[in-house]
Amino acid sequence: MERILIIDDEPMNLKLTKFILDNAGYEVVTTESGISGIELLQEIPFDLLLLDIEMPEMDGLEVLRRVRNIPEIAKIKVIFLTASNSKSDLSDAARLHAARFIQKPCLPDVLLRTVREAFEETTASLLLIVDDEPMSRALTRNAFESQFRVECVASGRDALNFLEQAVPDMILMDLYMPGMDGLDTFREIRKLEHCRHIPIIFTTAAEDNETELELFRAGAVDFIRKPFIAEIARERVKRILELKRLQNFLHEEVDRRTAQYMESARKVQRLTKQIIFALAGAIDAKDAYTNGHSSRVAGYSREIARRIGKDPQEIEDIYYAAMLHDVGKIGIPREIISKTSSLTEEEFEVIREHTVKGEKILRTISELPRLSIGARWHHERYDGGGYPDGLSGRDIPEIARIICVADCYDAMSSNRCYRAALSQRIVRDEIARGRGTQFDPDMADIMLQMIDEDTGYRMREH
Ligand SMILES: [Fe+2]
After folding, report:
1. Dihedral-angle region of residue 25 (phi above 0 means left; psi in -120 to 50 means alpha; beta otherwise)
2. Mean pLDDT, rounded, for 41-66
């Protein structure tokens, strides 16, 4: 008895499909998840897989992609059950060699017929012959039948109907047909996303080089003159199919490698983020009363960057640079950093060094060259009175001008062990007062705007 596995996340569909197939005498196993379906396939031998396309967690296309990569089960016959009409789904599926689809909700006789056809189908390639002349159709069928599965239709319209149900490996198309001729049909087929890659060979009795050239230019893969010698025609078709197979393999390989590469790129990105966060935690741990300072400054800086219209990559750079702006504090003695009484001039001098030390630390991260900019210049003042270099105005890098205002906002709006957070009014006044002297006026304006929008004073340490 033929054994069928159905994977569908909708219990009702699952029951219904199983009921129909049970009654037709098949042995049916069902599961609602792609992952358990793949496990079942590896445990029990199945003859056919009915696979829903749209499923949460892992969709049908991904399930099939995995199945095709497990050698013991890679060759299983598959029918997609799809409620979606999306042609790109179908195109993906076609590339994974699943030639059949059933539109949901499926009618019992359509389901049974498709399943039967799938079982009858050999692994030979499927050729679709499109020819209006019965004699010519019969001759072509005879020529190929011994080595291929052959389906014949008598018009371009019929060919398009056929392609709604199945994706052949190749189409042999008569050029001159009444109504929609070969070239028109060809163009219509190419408009179908899931048929775009099917090789099409034209057959014609015409001795006309110009037509031949036109067909090649339109994208036909070959041209066979009728009457043809069966053996030569078969060899040509075989060669083209082999090339196509290699091309598909190459496509899949490229997709697989691209996915692998993307995954490792994402991993590196996650790792970078985690290391930056860990380092920021180390900075904040050094200074007992600025807990969470780095990530808050990073958050405010990101918002400012967004409001001045930076692109996502720049916003992320600014976020990370802000996260690490005080990294140089790691190199400053704890008793100076955490001192609550007023600092001596010498101690101030030591504290100021955190900018230069920070730059030195971050300069070694050559993959993120902008990180060190924030560290070195976030204490510069717009009027030139800051440190370490006394830069002024636009000579101060933009990242640093952003971090500067975010840094001061957080210093005033967060609790310190020697004082509570300042009121929002005072913080606002201070930012406004520093506009154009301590802060870049544009950045200060954005900070003021953010404060004004924050009517509940929620944007601060909690
Ligand atoms: Fe700082």
Report:
1. left
2. 89
